[in-house]
Amino acid sequence: MLLRPSEVDREKHWFEFHNLDKIVHFLIFVVLGFCYRVAFFKQKKWLFVVVMFIYALFTEVAQGLMNMGRTMDFYDLLADMMGAGFGCFLFWQILSYIEKRK
């Protein structure tokens, strides 16, 4: 989804608005951050941040280099990192809730 070519000449839908892609970036990285924490539960938190940042940076650089209607955008990178952080936060909240119910 992040590296999919842009559809330049397509009709807009009623729910689309300016910067909708930032929300999409955020939501994709919420899922990615959550799943990453589930898969690598014992990994240090700083390594989570580094891995998510490198992946987000890679996708933004790739968008800029592909020349397929997508551009590299600092705010997409920011949305990615915020989403990954929120996914990690959700993971810890759910884990805390489960631990309290035991």
Task: Please characterize this protein's 3D structure.
By secondary structure, this protein is mainly alpha-helical. The protein has three helices and no strands. Helix 1 packs across helix 3.
What is the radius of gyration?
16 Å
Strand content: under 5%
* Helix/strand structural class: mainly alpha
Task: Give the helix tally.
Answer: 3
Mean pLDDT: 86
Helix content: 55-70%
Features:
69% helix, 3 helices, 0% strand, mainly alpha
Task: Chart the SSEs and their pairings.
Layout: H1 20-39, H2 45-66, H3 74-101
How would you sum up this structure in a few lines?
69% of the residues lie in helices and 0% in strands. With 102 residues, the protein is mainly alpha-helical.
